[in-house]
Specification:
The chain is of the alpha+beta class. It contains 6 helices and 4 strands; from the N terminus they run ααααββαββα. β1 and β2 form a beta hairpin.
Amino acid sequence: MEWEILQIMKQAEGTRFTYKDIGKIVDRKEFRENPHWARPHLERMVCERLIWKDEGYYLYPTEEMKAKERQKQGRVKFEGVESRSLEANK
């Protein structure tokens, strides 16, 4: 099930989804029986850092979003080599 969720989110990278949106898209029958079925799968994927959670929404980040996050954390890639800021090396 997680693989199916990940495939759908990769196709719409950068798009924010609620857990109910994902539940409807992946398995409508299961959604009718339990509208919250996708939430544990999504939370597990967030813990494994396959997807991101942003203000209650889940999303598969674009490369641009990943680059901005690396810059925020003080890691920047130059010509394929990752370097850390000077403050992090002290």
